[in-house]
Automatic annotation (TrEMBL):
Keyword Cell membrane: no
Single Gene Ontology BP annotation: nucleobase-containing compound metabolic process
Any single Pfam family the record assigns to this protein: DNA_photolyase
InterPro entries the record matches: Crypto/Photolyase_FAD-like_sf, Crypto/Photolyase_N_sf, Cryptochr/Photolyase_FAD-bd, Cryptochrome/DNA_photolyase_1, DNA_photolyase_1_CS_C, DNA_photolyase_N, Rossmann-like_a/b/a_fold
Protein name (Swiss-Prot/TrEMBL): DNA photolyase family protein
UniProt xrefs under PANTHER family: CRYPTOCHROME, CRYPTOCHROME CIRCADIAN CLOCK 5 ISOFORM X1
Cofactor or coenzyme needed: FAD
Cofactor note: Binds 1 FAD per subunit.
Superkingdom in the source lineage: Archaea
Molecular function, one GO term: DNA binding
Binding of FAD, residues: 218, 230-234, 278, 281-288, 381-383
Species classification: Archaea, Methanobacteriati, Methanobacteriota, Stenosarchaea group, Halobacteria
Chain positions of site Electron transfer via tryptophanyl radical: W312, W368, W391
Length: 494
């Protein structure tokens, strides 16, 4: 008998640790699947993620019940709970899949010690990524800090096939799972957002739908938020409701089908490139996983060192600006649409994440950690490695980050990626009936004209050109490039 401890792998299919536990049980026993509600982990939780996790657990439990078994749930410190459960079920070993963040690794070290002390064996597998941290390195053996080099090796390395779910008789049938707690039992309110459906079936539906058509136009369409051209798999990949091998295999199948595509609007070569562009996003996820694994401190610290501290604004006006950003009331339509999508759906399109993050750090000169905390609270797909990577990229403090002098102009970004202002109209109803030209030139219209067109929508809270100059000075000072009087003048302008 073995316990399989589910964590960020809420599925039975393509689950390496679970398959390994089932393989090892032999004739004398079976696998007991377990999930532990850990209060230390829940302390970092937020309603949208907890909602998705509970729905994914319900789907997982149903999957086990369909296979004649059940999911055992417990609450407490896994270092105490797992040895107790091992004793209760007479299990000789506990198996789980590796997690790579600093907090998870500390917890796992404690669990290992507790199991050792109880005389229970333990075994782990790498499952959440194709190539685990530390296996794709520079020639000197260091983790990559530049994505392009990482990607080339990641792309060329062989990918494992999906693994089969355990057979019914590999799973313990004499277990009866406890009732799953409700969200209030875990200390959270229902999220305001409409969180997407959870579970392997829902994830497979998203993958199938994406691979039918959108994948072949991914590189052309992925930056346009109104086109809904991306997979929407981020929350599934974060919680492991679908396996990375299964997703990759579907992309390879899509590649194989390009030659036979009936749709002659997409050239074969373009389709192959589009699929590869999507695969490179899967590699970005693994790139940031290895950044976090090698540098757990990036959760709170800048990855990139500047000569002097970056003088983020923190005065009263800055705090008011932060509130306006969170509410989606900055007077910059594309920024506000993104922030409202986040509130409504616990999700935001990638291009718009980049725009709102640039706006917070380079137009409002607010510390990226404010943005990270807000995303952590509201995104169902919040993933420490990706969220931190995205924020530090936008703030020019991360690995392979946006150079500090490349500052997005929120108006031209809106014009380029939402030309008909459809995305803005969907999330900012106050602007739904005005022309795209007026939406994209909102900052240039007179106050009287703005009141006439959309009386409820705010004026821009800052002037982009002015803040851009301030951001450049702020970063130059941090780089030690502005000296003497000039520096004092710049600082007093704050
Ligand atoms: C400021 C900021 C914060 C972000 N926070 C998160 C986060 O908390 N969780 C998260 O999963 N992604 C995050 N991203 C990356 C990206 O925005 C989302 O992964 C993507 O928008 C999810 O939509 P999708 O599943 O349709 O993506 P698709 O375009 O379909 O991409 C497929 C998958 O590749 C991965 N991926 C795509 N882009 C990236 C990227 N830039 N970095 C790392 N992995 C990527 C995701 O797992 C995604 O599901 C963030 C980006 C920024 C700029």
């Amino acid at each position: 008998m073995r316990l399989f401890w589910h964590r960020r792998d809420l599925r039975v299919a393509d689950n390496r640790g679970l398959a390994a536990a089932a393989d090892a049980t032999g004739d004398d026993g079976a696998v007991v699947p377990v999930f532990v509600f850990d209060d230390d982990v829940l302390a970092h939780g937020a309603p949208p993620r907890v909602r998705f996790m509970l729905d994914a657990l319900a789907a997982l439990r149903d999957d086990y019940r369909d296979r004649g078994s059940d999911l055992v749930v417990a609450r407490g410190d896994p270092a105490e709970v797992l040895p107790e459960l091992a004793d209760e079920f007479g299990a000789e070993a506990v198996v789980w899949n590796e997690d790579y963040s600093g907090l998870a690794r500390e917890r796992d070290a404690r669990v290992r010690m507790a199991l050792d002390a109880a005389g229970v064996a333990r075994e782990t597998r790498h499952d959440a990524v194709h190539h685990e941290p530390g296996t794709i390195t520079t020639n000197q053996g260091d983790p990559y800090a530049v994505f392009t080099y990482f990607w080339k090796k990641w792309r060329d390395r062989e990918k494992a096939d999906p693994v089969d779910p355990p057979a019914g008789d590999d799973l313990a049938d004499a277990v009866a799972g406890e009732r799953l707690p409700g969200i209030a039992d875990l200390g959270f309110e229902e999220p305001e957002a409409d969180v997407q459906a959870a579970g392997t079936d829902a994830a497979r539906d998203r993958l199938d739908k994406f691979c039918e058509d959108a994948i072949y136009r991914y590189d052309e369409d992925r930056d346009y938020p109104a086109r809904e051209a991306t997979s929407r798999l981020s929350t599934d990949l974060k919680w492991g409701t679908i396996g990375v091998r299964e997703v990759y295999a579907a992309t390879e199948e899509a590649n194989a089908e390009t030659a036979a595509m009936a749709d002659d609007t997409v050239e074969d070569d373009d389709a192959v490139e589009a699929v590869e562009e999507f695969q490179s996003q899967l590699a970005w996820r693994e790139f940031y996983t290895q950044v976090l694994w090698a540098n757990p401190e990036v959760v709170t610290e800048n990855y990139k060192e500047y000569d002097r501290p970056i003088e983020w604004r923190d005065d009263e006006t800055a705090i008011e600006h932060l509130a306006a950003w969170k509410e989606g009331r900055t007077g910059y339509p594309i920024v506000d649409a993104g922030m409202r999508q986040l509130k409504e759906e616990a999700y935001m399109h990638n291009r718009v994440r980049m725009i709102v993050a640039s706006f917070l750090t380079k137009d409002l000169l607010l510390d990226w950690r404010h943005g990270y905390e807000h995303f952590k609270e509201h995104l169902a797909d919040h993933d420490t490695a990706n969220d931190n990577g995205g924020w530090q990229w936008a703030a020019s403090t991360g690995t392979d980050a946006q150079p500090y002098f490349r500052i997005f102009n929120p108006m031209t970004q809106g014009e380029r990626y939402d030309p008909d202002a459809e995305y803005v109209a969907e999330y900012v109803p106050e602007l739904a009936s005005i022309s795209a030209d007026n939406v994209h030139s909102w900052h240039e219209l007179s106050v009287g004209r703005r009141r006439q067109l959309a009386p409820e929508y705010p004026d821009p809270i800052v002037d982009h050109s002015e803040m851009r100059e301030r951001a450049l000075s702020m970063f130059k000072r941090a780089r030690g490039e502005v000296e003497g009087e000039e520096e004092e003048e710049e600082a007093s302008a704050d």
